[in-house]
Amino acid sequence: MSGYRPAGLEDSFAAPSADEQAPGSAAPPQLPSLGPVGWLRWAWRQLTSMRVALLLLMLLAVAAVPGTIYPQRAQDVAEVATYIADHPTSGPWLDRLGFFDVYSSVWFSAIYLMLFVSLVGCILPRTRVHLAAVRGRPPRTPRRLTRFPAQAAGSSSDTPEQVARAAAAAMRRGRYGLPFVRAYRVDVHDEGGGTWSAAGERGYLRETGNLVFHLALVGLLVSVAAGQMLHYRGQAIVVQGRGMANSVQAYDTFEKGSAFRPESLEPFTLTLDSFDAVFDPDSLEPRDFTAGVTVTDPDGTRVADTLKVNHPLERNGAKIYLQGNGYAPSVTVRDGTGDVAFAGAVPFLPQDEVYTSRGVVKVPDVAAGQDQIGLVGYLLPTAQEMAPGLWRSADPQPTDPLLVLSVWSGNLGLDTGVPQNVYELDEERMTQALEEDGTALTLYLRPGETVDLPDGLGSVTFDRLDRYVALDLRHDPALTAVLVFSLLAFAGLATSLFAPRRRLWVRAAPAADDAQDHGPGTGSTVVSAAGLARGDDVGLQPELDRVLAETLTPTRGSRTP
Known about the structure:
With 561 residues, the chain is an alpha+beta fold.
């Protein structure tokens, strides 16, 4: 069945069989082998094609998704360690494949570099062709203008040369007399026999916009890469009355690029002098946060300044933002021997709009032979007892603060080598203190009060309640470049989408020469015009009518069609 052909049907594309080939006939042509150079040329053309560039752009967006799903080691080492510990089967494999370092992994960098090469390889030849086309002259006027979609005709008493030059001036001038609106590149040509023509072309701005868009994409890739290499970002919590130095070691978390150098940080210190929070008295919604700070330079110069939300403090190209705030109860914990094992302010994290805050006090430095102590609980800025043993905060302002703690003892696990969250207690090797009836033991403390810990563990004192602020230091030298290239990309894309590509032709001939085509005219010159656009262009015919109307202006003794 595979060799069946209906009778009388010739298939000129089918190769003749061995029996059908005439003796001495030539063998069918053989395609030449590409060879290594040919295959490399084919691969380069595929890589630099627009189709592959778009594919790589989408692939880059897909490759960035794991960076938003899995914790990244550059942002939170402890979270990555916790994830691997919680997923002993998949965690190590994900780590080997680079899913916790997505943006510095080999496969993400390969896609990034291939996209960069593809864009550059696509832009360079197109730019060369575009520049040659821009420097070229508009196409000459075709012999027959009646085959084009936009047509117009008229007559004038001026000579053909004057009409052609007037048409060229009308196309070059553009609408409304603005030189940069609807302007054409024009060429006036003497066709012989007294006939003159003017050819105009516009729309190369469309390709210019397309090239600007792709160049802006390259600029964005370079800017983002430079920003990832040079940027740094640090977060720190500063308690009221205390300060911090602008050094890598002083930040609680610090993220940096591969090209960052610690000496690039400006050496200054920042002290939190005061913090004021304003809340709506009815809805308790926050209205204003103001942090009064003092910045001290290395030469001893002290400058007082304020920090507000969305009003950062700028230092040496970096910006310090007021990221958050809360309460830091200052506590003193004594061990079973009466010695001070811990003393200081402990930041508690707000959990709701009334600043019910949760925190952990870890006391590892206790007397020899004694279990380590962990205190977990809540701070209520304005405590209100709803039922026996049930407390809540009624206001975010600290009018009646209460510290509610549960007691744990055992091994805090700080010596295991696994990073821990300072706001969480590892309860695996800890035992919670219980009442005689088996319920959890709860301690209630107000500022100035001291409570003994159970089982001879010692005592805890609530000294005072301080405020703290969370500061976020950011420095990215590529942000300005990213903004500029983003605007350029938007402008180039808009230009490539909305700039029309048009060609207009106007031919002026003596009336006697075109009498057969146009009939007798009142003027001495018969004018015919046509227009052509790339794609659908509803403005082509109105544009052609405008050019012809300005060419045959009544002030020149002519009439419009």
